[in-house]
């Protein structure tokens, strides 16, 4: 957050007025966030006995450790794939003007604001046995009979990349738009070609946006529930599906709470470590 | 165009096909006569829309979601604007705490929030209630509203309010008559985004659903998981139209906001 975003001058309000205006916000956050999450996490260390037993189970049982590592691997893969697809789109968006810029922005924003469930259903239709992707693969002779594409890790990675890509495009685009065009000219005057200018001027200046987008996609992917639950294989589940299963089917609330604890801890550490590049107001502003 | 630009453009258009393909494939299926989902769709019918509007369970879920989304939009607009105004006009010191609480609910994975609320609402009997959903959706939609409002508020010259107060208005009237009309387009566009976020929210809705009261996303999840009927493409058509309308409305509001700002500058 840039200093001064929430600051302004003007006549001061009284302390009472400020508290009165802020009270509903803090009450809501306490009621629907702090208290529920706090009591869930306390369950993980207090039940069935006040120990770290639930957390030991997560890390020591190979079944659960596998889920955790698979989740990390898929989230990393999705982030890398999103970056590879998003960077060129963001570059073209930042360099376009007029109708082309509007068209590119609309192409990125329309899926961003359309339902995650609709997009997940669309991938289920595309990847089914007699779906378009299988038709295409058979048509160009890669395979002679339909492949099993749905309910695999590949399906999860592709659909999640599709759903989360806009979170990568928008921060990178925001960072690129903030680079004054003089810099490119200055670099050219000093004798650098376009490629060298890109590597030595544009890329370093866009780095906060790239890292911010990457971390945002990675964190969202870590806890993603809908797409892996609908398109993934039950034998290769991710942590969010495991949490849901422990909570709703096995009714093992303290263990589910420990899984939530591991996930929340991971996400919090990464967020704090990268808090300098996290400019949420810019990311949300770019999307809105 | 030089070769490098051609390669960049070609790559980007290939990526755009990837981005748009799923939506372009699912939308025409809403009009297909077949009961299974196949591409290209066969025939032309409005039967799936009739099925949707004629089915009391889908209709009940839709109205339930509309009610929750509308209340979420109002709640975040009112509470978010109040807190943001207090912060910008005097509570600088609380900025860090406010920001941490604001961003917390969207940084913490939705699954963690959903499970925590599931447990809390089970124990308090709030599962499946409108109040429970609105509280949960409000905290995840809040940042979008607050940042939209804060962006507008920080560009309003505080001298305008000071002038109103010098002329005898109290703080509330100065806000209501001077500042609010200037920031109103942003408040409404923040509320619109909160509406869409709530209306589309699948994860919390998945856990909080009672036996009777399900939101539209929860009904869609069940349908996709069980048999994926052509009702889903029909809903996709309507949701996509809704998103387009909201985006256009937000764009229009942004235009109005810029014009307002320019007018204030001049005067």
Question: Of all protein chain pairs, which has the greatest interface, and how many residues does each chain bring to it?
Answer: A-B, 91 and 103 residues
What's the overall geometry of chain B? globular
Number of DSSP helical runs of chain B: 11
**CATH fold-level label of chain A:** MetI-like fold
One letter per element, helices H and strands E, the order of chain B comes to: HHHHHHHHHHH
Query: How much of the residues of chain A is beta strand, in percent?
Result: under 5%
Sheet with the most strands, sense and barrel status of chain B: none
**Number of continuous helical runs of chain A:** 13
Please identify, by name, the CATH architecture of the largest domain in chain B: Orthogonal Bundle
CATH class type of chain A: Mainly Alpha
Global Rg of chain B: 23 Å
Q: Please report the first level of CATH classification, the CATH class of the largest domain in chain B.
A: Mainly Alpha
**What is the structural class of chain B?**
mainly alpha
Question: How much beta of chain B, percentage-wise?
Answer: under 5%
Family (chain B): Belongs to the binding-protein-dependent transport system permease family.
Pfam families (chain B): BPD_transp_1
Keywords (chain B): Cell inner membrane, Cell membrane, Membrane, Transmembrane, Transmembrane helix, Transport
Domain ABC transmembrane type-1 (chain B): 62-250
């Amino acid at each position: 957050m840039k200093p001064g975003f929430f600051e302004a001058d003007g006549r001061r309000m009284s302390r009472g007025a400020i508290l009165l205006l802020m009270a509903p916000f803090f009450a809501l956050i306490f009621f629907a966030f702090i208290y529920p999450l706090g009591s869930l996490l306390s369950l993980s260390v207090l039940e069935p006995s006040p120990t770290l037993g639930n957390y030991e189970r997560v890390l020591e049982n190979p079944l659960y450790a596998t889920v955790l590592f698979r989740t990390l691997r898929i989230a990393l893969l999705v982030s890398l794939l999103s970056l590879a697809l998003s960077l060129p789109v963001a570059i073209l968006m930042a360099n376009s003007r007029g109708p082309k810029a509007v068209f590119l922005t609309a192409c990125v924003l329309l899926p961003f604001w359309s339902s995650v469930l609709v997009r997940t259903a669309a991938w289920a239709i595309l990847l089914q046995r007699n779906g378009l992707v299988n038709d295409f693969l058979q048509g160009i002779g890669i395979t002679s009979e339909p492949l099993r594409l749905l309910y695999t890790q590949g399906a999860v990675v592709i659909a999640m990349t599709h759903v989360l890509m806009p979170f990568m495009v928008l921060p990178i685009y925001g960072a690129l738009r903030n680079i004054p065009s003089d810099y490119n000219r200055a670099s050219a005057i000093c004798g650098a070609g376009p490629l060298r200018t890109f590597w030595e001027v544009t890329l370093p200046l866009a780095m906060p946006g790239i890292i911010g987008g990457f971390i945002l996609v990675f964190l969202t992917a870590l806890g993603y529930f809908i797409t892996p639950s609908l398109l993934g294989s039950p034998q290769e589940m991710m942590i969010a599906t495991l949490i849901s299963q422990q909570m709703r089917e096995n009714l093992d609330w303290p263990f589910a709470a420990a899984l939530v604890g591991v996930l929340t801890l991971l996400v919090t550490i990464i967020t704090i470590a990268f808090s300098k590049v996290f400019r949420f107001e810019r990311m949300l502003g770019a999307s809105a | 165009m030089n070769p490098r630009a051609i390669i960049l453009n070609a790559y980007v258009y290939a990526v755009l096909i990837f981005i748009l393909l799923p939506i372009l494939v699912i939308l025409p299926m809403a009009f297909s006569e077949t009961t299974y989902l196949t591409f290209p769709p066969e025939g032309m019918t409005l039967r799936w829309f009739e099925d949707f509007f004629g089915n009391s369970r889908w209709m009940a879920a839709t109205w339930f979601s509309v009610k929750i989304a509308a209340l979420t939009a109002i709640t975040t607009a009112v509470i978010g604007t109040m807190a943001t105004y207090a912060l910008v006009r005097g509570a600088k010191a609380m900025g860090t705490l406010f920001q941490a609480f604001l961003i917390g609910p969207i940084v913490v994975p939705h699954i963690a929030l959903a499970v925590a609320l599931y447990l809390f609402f089970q124990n308090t009997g709030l599962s499946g209630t409108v109040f429970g959903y609105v509280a949960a959706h409000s905290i995840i939609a809040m940042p979008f509203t607050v940042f939209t409002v804060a962006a507008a508020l920080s560009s309003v010259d505080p001298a305008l309010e000071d002038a109103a107060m010098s002329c005898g208005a109290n703080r509330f009237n100065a806000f209501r008559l001077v500042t609010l009309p200037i920031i109103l387009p942003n408040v409404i566009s923040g509320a619109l985004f909160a509406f869409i976020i709530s209306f589309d929210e699948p994860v919390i809705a998945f856990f909080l659903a009672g036996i009777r009261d399900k939101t539209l996303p929860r009904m869609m999840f069940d349908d996709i998981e069980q048999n994926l009927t052509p009702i889903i493409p029909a809903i996709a058509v309507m949701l996509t139209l809704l998103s387009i309308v909201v985006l256009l409305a937000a764009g229009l509001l942004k235009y109005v906001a810029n014009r307002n700002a320019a007018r204030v500058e001049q005067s």
